[in-house]
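Meet my pick.
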Amino acid sequence: MRQIAMVIDLNKCLGCQTCTAACKTQWTNRNGREYMYWNNVETMPGKGYPKNWMDYNAGWGKDGQLKIGELPQIPEEYGIPWEYNYEKVAEEKDAILKPEKEPEWGPNWDEDVGEGEYPNSYYFYLPRLCNHCSKPACLAACPMKAIRKREEDGIVLVDLQKCRGIRNCIRACPYKKVYFNPKRARQEEGIPGQTEKCIFCYPRIEKGLPPACAKQCVGRARHVGFLDDKGSHVYKLVKGWKVALPLRPDFGTKPNVFYVPPLSPSKFNEKGEPINEQRIPIDYLKKLFGQEVENAQKMLQTEMEKKAKGEKSELMDILIAYRQKEMFKL
């Protein structure tokens, strides 16, 4: 079995949401999917989407047992798309454009907020999608065996012929990247709806094209390839240079979306002078990306300094991504 994977360079992510728009317009813009974001870019530190997704106590425990957590709720954790008073603005001269009903939560609610006090405040962007894990908790949790992992590329898919809307898959996924579509209900069969998720744009993959989110990334931050292909950027970044790390490896699902961790600007002292202390706390980065994050940062810094001196660096050439087509090896 082969495994396709993605590497996202967080030092190049602009937070522009072009990837989100590419996914939304292609897959989730209607028919019960309006609230779904198979791909979204979160500001970290932040609550994310759905709200506080890291706190649901799901995935695999250290004892190897499956953990089935709570079910996120609409609108409390997801929020719902809201409508604006377009007709009133069109008809009344002094009307101000605003939501019909004041929203309380939604995707990117805390965008660009972060933490810390000026001048040492900080945040970074974290694009998220289904990790197409090697040990998917969603698959293990489904009593109907409606979730499968394709042998040819490791993409995790939901079989809608088998799904009964039980939603254990949503509860078990620690990344909360499985969603429930109530508009797929079949009441006569006792099916309240069905679950749907990122399909890694497999119809594109089968034609040798990268997922829409990767192709449309304006910052050239996403690399796609097979983990066993030594000529791919993915292999070199994950297994060669070891600068691409999984998100929350402690969840135990062995995710196949990897991240080049963000480098942190220096803090400033009371005189406004930079000091030798990272603004983004290293413990926070370790929580997200595991204990190897410091080694990855050191490697990145070393290779950046080499490149700045005019020396050759394969790692920097890969991450700069001079030619987009070289980022995708399918």
